[in-house]
Amino acid sequence: MVAKNSYLPVVALDGPVGVGKSTVAMSLAHRLDFYYLDTGAMYRAFALKCLKERVSLAALNDSRHQLFRDTIINIVYTSKGFCITLDGEDVTSQIRMPEVSAYSSKVSSYKSVRDYLISQQRRIGRTQPSVVEGRDIGTVVFPDAFLKVYLDAEFSERVRRRYIQYQQCEIDIPKEKLEESIRVRDKEDLSRPFGALRKAEDAYYVDSTSLNADQVINEILKLYEKRKCLVSV
Ligand code: DC
Predict the structure, then answer these.
(1) Which ligand 1 atom is nearest residue 192's CA?
(2) In 10 A of CB 102, how many CB atoms?
(3) pLDDT digits (tens, 9 = 90+) for 170-200
(4) Which of 63, 91, 192, 201 has the smallest number of CB atoms closer than 10 Å to its CB?
(5) Ordered structural domains, the chain, with CATH
(6) Whose C-alpha lies nearest to ligand 1, atom 15?
(7) Is the C-beta atom of 40 inside 6 A of ligand 1?
(8) Is the CB of 227 under 6 A from ligand 1?
(9) 14 Cβ inside 6 Å of ligand 1
């Protein structure tokens, strides 16, 4: 039995690259009237800052680096939808570029970067009911989350989904190159020393290989209702 009020009003959604977390998390947040927090977008924005400022990866070993004081990442909701700003500039499209994807995977293996962004993620998630997506949300950021879901799909299906996403953003990338970059990012996600991608023991596992986004969302909403019943027992 689950004790009443022992969990934060957070839905943690973790899973690998290209599994469709963003689509699902955004829609879920809308359906539950929760805040939507895309932690991957924060790592991407931080990676973009490193690229712009030509900060070497080695410099990130120093948690007192100036970058941790003068980087301002904000998630803003406008009439056009979700937008992410870096030091006041709208970088929503820039952070989706393939070179930023690759660099964010590297930057996110530094403890200094993770500590810096995790404290911001906790601050946001603790002030309002939220759907939070990432890699380490159920294991590290919100281990007391109300509901934890690990969303998975077969590799070929993840490549297919990411390829369509790039096409929709008019980003041209050969499929073989995309496959290779997802393979590399999977390896980095699974092997990083801090906050590696893994399913929390108490997370529900959802295989979305043969499900569409609506089916996944409905499945998670059912799990959410189940948790509510457990908590109110
Ligand atoms: O979910 P995404 O592809 O937008 O994430 C970008 C990168 O950030 C990805 O390579 C892994 C990393 N990331 C992370 O280490 N921890 C998170 N909670 C979210 C993303």
Answers:
(1) 15
(2) 15
(3) 888 899 999 999 999 999 999 999 999 999 9
(4) 201
(5) 10-232 (3.40.50.300)
(6) 108
(7) yes
(8) no
(9) no
